[in-house]
């Protein structure tokens, strides 16, 4: 991955990927990286940097934090300091995804994927090519099913469902269809699910879900109104196999439906 012609925005995306691929933090030798700390009385002190943490792209506490040899941790707010830290990170650490073309969209996609799976990475190491292939297989299979009915959408397992209860006080916006009609001739959906675990049926084209959460309800297809497209996360075991915290989450484009009538949940 050639970085000499990168913009500062692109360099920052690469630096974020480096940090996230290592569980969100790096621990440089303080002799290799330093920062000038300005005391309250205006005096300046040059201190070694012993850790750099990336705390996410959004939220009040998002951004870069540095741990200094004086024992303090400081949020990087000065642009000059941030540029210095980013350039040093690129000098000291190998860049993940060296085989991918340098495109802002793809770099942002990898940042989001690593942020979503930061606990997994911290425990089992960075996302591997085998992991990416697994995600890609499910993404392509699920999106192919939806492409086949694009002209006349029908509800499918994994689609998002929104609606409300009879009182109107408890709307749900991210329910998921967890089972297609069987003997009951109705779709089953979970109104407030955790991230569903996805697996292939025996033919490797259709998928099934293992869903936790609540409440589980049934609805007839005629009572579902097509809203549009949605992106939701699913999970499956990563390169570590079935183990505690070993599932990786990944996005899939699905369809979204609204339950026309209020439901009891």
Task: Provide the fold topology.
Elements: H1 8-21, E1 25-26, E2 34-38, E3 44-54, E4 64-68, E5 73-75, H2 79-92, H3 104-116, H4 118-124, H5 129-147, E6 160-163, E7 172-179, E8 187-193, E9 197-200, E10 207-210, E11 213-219, E12 224-237, E13 247-259
Parallel strand pairs: 6-13
Antiparallel strand pairs: 1-3, 2-3, 3-4, 4-5, 6-7, 7-8, 8-11, 9-10, 12-13
Helix pairs in contact: 1-2, 1-3
Low-confidence stretches: none
Give the distance, in angstroms, between the N- and C-terminal Cα atoms. 52 Å
Rg to the nearest angstrom? 23 Å
Secondary structure class reads alpha+beta
Mean pLDDT: 88
* Sheet with most strands: strand arrangement: 11-8-7-6-13-12
Output the helix-strand order.
HEEEEEHHHHEEEEEEEE
| Total domain modules | 2
Strand share of the residues?
25-35%
Helical content stands at 25-40%
Characterize this entry briefly.
The chain is an alpha+beta fold and 265 residues long. It contains five helices and 13 strands.
If you had to describe this structure to a student in words, what would you say it looks like?
This protein has 265 residues and is an alpha+beta fold. It folds into 2 domains: 8-124, no CATH class; 129-259, no CATH class. The protein contains 5 helices and 13 strands. It has helices at 8-21, 79-92, 104-116, 118-124, 129-147, and strands spanning 25-26, 34-38, 44-54, 64-68, 73-75, 160-163, 172-179, 187-193, 197-200, 207-210, 213-219, 224-237, 247-259. The strands form 3 sheets. The protein has a 6-stranded mixed beta sheet with strand order 11-8-7-6-13-12. Strands 1, 2, 3, 4 and 5 form a 5-stranded antiparallel beta sheet that branches. Strand 4 and strand 5 form a beta hairpin. The longest helix has 19 residues, at 129-147. It is elongated. The mean pLDDT is 88.
């Amino acid at each position: 991955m050639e970085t000499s012609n990168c913009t500062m925005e692109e360099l920052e995306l690469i630096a974020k990927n480096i940090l996230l691929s290592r569980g969100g933090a790096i621990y440089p030798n303080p002799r290799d990286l330093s920062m000038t700390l300005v005391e309250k009385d205006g005096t300046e002190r040059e201190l070694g940097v012993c850790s750099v943490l990336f705390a996410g792209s959004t939220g009040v506490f998002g951004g870069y934090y540095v741990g200094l040899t004086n024992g303090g941790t400081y949020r990087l707010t000065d642009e000059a300091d941030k540029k210095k830290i980013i350039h040093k990170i690129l000098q000291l650490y190998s860049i993940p995804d060296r085989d991918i073309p340098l495109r802002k969209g793809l770099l942002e996609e990898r940042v989001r994927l690593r942020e979503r799976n930061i606990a997994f990475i911290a425990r089992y190491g960075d996302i591997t090519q085998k992991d990416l292939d697994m995600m890609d297989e499910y993404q392509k299979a699920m999106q192919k099913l939806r492409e086949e009915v694009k002209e006349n959408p029908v509800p499918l397992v994994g689609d998002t469902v929104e609606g409300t209860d009879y009182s109107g006080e408890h709307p749900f916006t991210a329910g998921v269809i967890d089972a297609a009609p069987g003997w009951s001739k109705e779709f089953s959906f979970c109104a407030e699910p955790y991230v569903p675990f996805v697996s292939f049926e025996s033919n490797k084209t259709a998928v099934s879900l293992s869903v936790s959460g609540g409440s589980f309800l049934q609805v007839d297809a005629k009572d579902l109104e097509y809203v549009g497209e949605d992106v939701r996360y699913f999970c499956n075991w990563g390169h570590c196999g079935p183990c505690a915290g070993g599932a990786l989450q990944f996005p899939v484009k699905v369809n979204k439906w609204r339950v026309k009538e209020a439901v009891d949940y």
